[in-house]
Amino acid sequence: MKLEVKNLTKKFNSLIAVKDISFTIEKNKTLGLLGPNGCGKTTSIGMMLGLITPTSGQITIDKIFLNPKNRIELLSLMNFASPYIELPKKLTVKQNLEVYARLYGVKNVKDRISEMSEDLNLISFLDKKTGELSSGQKNRVSLAKSLINKPKLLFLDEPTASLDPDVGDFVRAYLEKYKEENELTILLASHNMKEVERLCDSIVMMKKGEIVDRGTCQQLITKHGRENLEETFLKIARSKNELG
Amino acid sequence: MNWDKIYALSLRHVYLIKDSFPRILDLIYWPTIQIFLWGFISKFFTLTSSFYENTVGIILSAAILYDFLFRSSISYNMMFLEEIWSRNFTNLFIAPIKLSEIIASLTLTAIFRTLIGLVPATLIAIPLFGVSIFKIGIPLIFLLISLYVFGVTLGLLVTSGLVRFGPSFENIAWASLFFLAPLGCIYYPLDILPNWLQIFAELLPLVYIFEEMRNILIYDIIKISQILKAILISFIYFVLGVIIFYMSYKGAKERGNLLNIGE
């Protein structure tokens, strides 16, 4: 799916959370949405998921304008994972996956759960309550939920935050493999620059609600004369009023 | 309406109750205590005063019906609050499920929770106090429908507040029914209220439901017009509740509440 964001703005009373941002993610590509905390990444994702009404601007998914009337239809082709939202803690992993598979209208629920469980190593704790899992296990369950409907467009908000390097690497490797085998466009918001370098085809840098720079990782590193993306991020985040 | 999605959302709440003995116990415990308390109070009145003769049946039946209303509303609120407490709210609202399907699912599942609590308490009242609400007969079905629709409506109004103001609105959820109870004329006739309060009380379906219950149990008279009025008023409030819920949802999307609502 191709995602196009045009002149998107969100004001909360006098606060401008997102200011006139525009970008495109081509089909099967991954775009990194970067920026310091509070720069408007999550608000932007919220608008793209139809959870927040934009003040102005347009969101187009495969040339279809996202609006309240077609939101449900489009949502069945998307999904979202974030460590800041959780699945019901008192339900087992299997029950949670079943509920969400049914909500997303998955045809063969049992087969899809088995497939996801094998791929993401969930089998050993499928019957455990979700609230009793470790961070790494919860994260994999959240990823399984976000892929349960085989989405064509996936929003990931810091998917490996608070994970140990081993689990973080597993998640990144899985996403790479999944993308190779499936048609999937990803918007990734992350503070892990190595993760962004590894997964993203291009980057959009936000600061104070605005897009301040964009390009591939290498283009940005070269442009700002830094050694890696982390240093580039720091330079942009700490600079004053630099607009690209 | 997609019934598979309504079923899926109901399943989430059924799993929650099914696998938790403390939750089932909690659902049964409070209505049962209520029945015991009112049963003994009214039995005491009957034994010590001829004025209160036959009041066990009336007061206890009123207590059961009021608890039915209370449980319907609280069940609806609780299921919505569960989503907030478990931080599952955002996941739910990004799933391809319509608001009408969420309302339908919560409405249908609330009856399940309500009956778990109330059926044992109602059955206990028969041998223990010799009181059966089934004596009301066929009209009982319609009185229960009216109570249920009104209970769900109160639940809808509280959930609208939760969507609009966030979890801080939770306390209102618990207080909402107690606020209406004095006006509902549950344990006493409408005439007891001052004239100016009677005007407000008559705007609620509760007055007609409980007056009708007393009519049937004391005078053995069924006034169909009272029952119809109760059902009609309940449904009018339900439609208003749905409209307010949609407006709150729209407002929450404007303010970005749906993305960060949580404990």
What does this structure look like?
The complex is a heterodimer of chains A (244) and B (263). Chain A has 244 residues and is of the alpha/beta class. Chain A has 2 domains: 169 residues, P-loop containing nucleotide triphosphate hydrolases (Rossmann fold, 3-Layer(aba) Sandwich); 69 residues, no CATH class. Chain A is built from 9 helices and 10 strands. In chain A, the strands form 2 sheets. Chain A has a 6-stranded mixed sheet with strand order 6-7-8-3-9-10, sandwiched between helices. A 4-stranded antiparallel sheet of chain A has the order 2-1-4-5, with helices on one face. In chain A, a hairpin with a 2-residue loop joins strand 4 and strand 5. The mean pLDDT of chain A is 91. Chain B is globular. Chain B has one domain. Chain B contains 11 helices and no strands. Chain B is mostly helical and 263 residues long. In chain B, helix 3 runs antiparallel to helix 9, helix 6 packs antiparallel against helix 7 and helix 9 runs antiparallel to helix 10. The chains are: A alpha/beta (244), B mainly alpha (263). The interface between A and B is medium-sized, with 37 and 33 residues.
